[in-house]
Amino acid sequence: MSDLLFAAEPRQRDIARELYALARDLPLISPHGHVDPGLLAGDEPFGDPARLLIVPDHYVTRMLLSQGIPLARLGVPSRTGVPVEQDPRAIWRLLAENWYLFRGTPSRLWLERTLSTVFGVDTRLGPDTADQIYDTVAERLAEPAFRPRALFERFGIEVLATTESPLDDLSRHAKLAADGWGGPGGRVITTFRPDDVVDMEFDGWASSVSRLGEITGEDTATYRGYLAALWSRRQAFQAAGATSSDHGHPTAHTTLLTSAEAARLFERGLRGRASAADAEAFRGHMLVEFARMSIEDGMVLQLHPGAVRNHNRSLHAVHGRDVGGDIPQATDYVHALAPLLEAYGNDPRLRVVLYTLDEDVFTRELAPLAGGYAALYLGAPWWFLDSPDGLRRYRDAVTETAGFYNTAGFADDTRAFCSIPVRHEVARRADAAYLARLVAEGRLPLDEAAETIADLAYHLPKKVFRL
């Protein structure tokens, strides 16, 4: 067995090997991610290696962009008509020529482990090996064993949650359900992500609200009809297997407004007269509303705040959202969440999973909050923190205050389907290494560490996300 991410000290390394062996082959629970459900609904062969492993991976493309390589040269689609590279081999060669940029990064670890464990490629990527590796991966992708559903089975995924807007018709999930893959308790389920109809600062928010009304038959020109429409879509999502909602707000701000106050904000937004403060107040109010809805319908509420979206405005103008132009910011939770927690934080029917991009708050705010309210759990390190060292820092920061069982297990949060098993492997190895240190230091018996790693890898995410 590889000793990847295990301590160099022999005793800790031996214990980590033993613990990792207990978690290595447990089924994968992927309770939060962004894989396109059409990938599995259609089960068509993947395209070329570049469009599978490079073009959609903003971890990879943003590093190259930081060195002056335009995303157009990497084949990232343009929304302005700017010509983009169409030759997948040229894109692959460009990455190989610049592979040295990724030394020490999780992106390199994930891609190398994906090439090795998924495609059987152990040759080191570089300018001289680029074509050889490309051809090997391309040959694999042509085989039936490398179609999406076959890989899903090989990866050992038990549940994969995708993420859709309330405006999605859920037809891809209907196809999965018809094939025995989706629906409540299915292998592929959806997640309710209402940001585009909640955040007034989204492009086309008023039009999206109108479309929400058309889909549901509710009058979303009124605040009461808007709430009814959201409730209707939550029910439709639950019928498609959803057990959670997800909210990617700029901050964790929550506020308690009266229905009349919320209606006035809503109407200002529809008229195009809402200020930034109005948008923030409405988002904060709606988080409390969604917590109330969660108590009624049992859906877990995930909160992903702290990203300044589209910070690189020229990148957004040319290529749109979710291409690597977002930047983390400092985030307050103690004061921001107080209104929601005062209303519902001690209600055991509510389950809120908190994520952060600001690891300074793990020890100061998030761990004490999760240790002090029945409704709160800590989500896995997310995005810029989803790395071997980020996972270690997370355990160091939160365990003494929140323990292991106020955390929600690992969530890969990825669009890159083929990287899912690798990301879970890295998380399980990091947890094995952390637990091994506790055992070696006499702080945890080995048998309890064995129970804990199985819980972190498998049982906790199933429980917390009500799977």
From TrEMBL:
PANTHER family per record: URONATE ISOMERASE (PTHR30068:SF4)
Ranges in a coiled coil: none
Catalysis performed (reactions): D-glucuronate = D-fructuronate
First-level EC class: isomerase
Protein name, entry field: Uronate isomerase
InterPro entries tied to this protein: Metal_Hydrolase, Uronate_isomerase
Record keywords: Isomerase
Organism superkingdom: Bacteria
GO MF annotations in UniProt: glucuronate isomerase activity
GO biological process: D-galacturonate catabolic process; D-glucuronate catabolic process
EC number(s) given by UniProt: 5.3.1.12
Pathway the protein acts in: Carbohydrate metabolism; pentose and glucuronate interconversion
Family, similarity comment: Belongs to the metallo-dependent hydrolases superfamily. Uronate isomerase family.
